[in-house]
């Protein structure tokens, strides 16, 4: 469980920040309040600030992942660069989504006749490409090992299952009761062992 504590903490923090972002982003007074001489409303500013906090959490979690992954998967070192690449892509995606409303007004000037809003997604795509390439090549190179890990986990899970003698449902080997029919498995298994 200790291995999962940072993951659970990170997930709770992210859900909390996403909820806060949605609440503040949809407050009418923030939507209607604009910064002086700038076409940016208060909701966009709050969204950008929350975006920076989320990016900070992602970067902090990425640093924690190195120790967690080396502990959880000591015989699978390729896992670390894959997760790092995924988290880097998440940072870029969060930055893209959270800063779009702040940056977009500066990329379009109707009175001056120019529109370079197409540049915004292109910049983020260029930043994401090395991480997507790293993730793709690592996955490709270690596909056999990933497949073996998944296969081993499935076989281990199957080995830990038994069939309920009363209803035939698949039940964990160490379960006391069948989740389907409620049969007391310890009694049923003891009776079947006696015969």
Radius of gyration: 25 Å
Helix content class: 55-70%
Broad structural category? mainly alpha
**Strand coverage percent:** 5-15%
Report on the biggest sheet.
2 strands, antiparallel
| Strands in their spatial order, largest beta sheet | 1-2
Work out the number of β strands. 4
| SSE string, helices as H and strands as E | HHHHEEHHEEH
Runs with pLDDT <50, length 5+? none
Mean pLDDT: 86
Number of helices: 7
C-alpha termini separation: 39 Å
Structural description of this entry:
The protein has 2 domains: about 5-155, no CATH class; about 160-195, no CATH class. The chain is about 70% helix and about 5% strand. The protein has helices at about 5-25, 30, 40-70, 80-105, 120-140, 145-160, 185-195, and strands at about 110, 115, 160-165, 170. A two-stranded antiparallel ribbon has the order 1-2. Helix 1 (about 5-25) runs antiparallel to helix 3, helix 3 packs antiparallel against helix 4 and helix 4 (about 80-105) runs antiparallel to helix 5 (about 120-140).
Describe, in short, the structure shown:
Helices cover 68% and strands 5% of the residues. The chain contains seven helices and four strands. It has helices spanning 5-25, 28-32, 42-72, 79-103, 119-141, 143-159, 185-194; strands at residues 108-109, 114-115, 161-163, 170-172.
Outline the fold blueprint:
Elements: H1 5-25, H2 28-32, H3 42-72, H4 79-103, E1 108-109, E2 114-115, H5 119-141, H6 143-159, E3 161-163, E4 170-172, H7 185-194
Antiparallel strand pairs: 1-2, 3-4
């Amino acid at each position: 469980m200790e291995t999962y504590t940072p993951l659970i903490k990170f997930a709770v923090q992210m859900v909390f920040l996403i909820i806060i972002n949605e609440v503040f982003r949809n407050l009418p007074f923030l939507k209607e309040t604009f910064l002086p001489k700038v076409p940016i409303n208060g909701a966009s500013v709050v969204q950008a600030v929350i975006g920076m906090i989320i990016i900070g959490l992602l970067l902090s979690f990425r640093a924690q992942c190195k120790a967690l992954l080396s502990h959880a998967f000591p015989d699978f070192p390729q896992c670390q660069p894959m997760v790092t690449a995924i988290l880097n892509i998440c940072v870029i995606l969060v930055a893209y989504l959270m800063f779009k409303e702040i940056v977009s007004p500066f990329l379009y000037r109707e009175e001056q006749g120019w529109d370079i809003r197409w540049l915004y997604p292109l910049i983020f795509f260029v930043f994401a490409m090395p991480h997507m390439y790293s993730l793709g090549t690592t996955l490709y190179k270690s596909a056999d090992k990933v497949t073996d890990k998944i296969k081993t986990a499935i076989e281990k899970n199957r080995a830990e299952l038994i069939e309920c003698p009363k209803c035939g449902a698949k039940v964990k080997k160490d379960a006391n009761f069948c989740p389907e029919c409620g049969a007391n498995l310890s009694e049923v298994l003891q009776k079947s062992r006696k015969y």
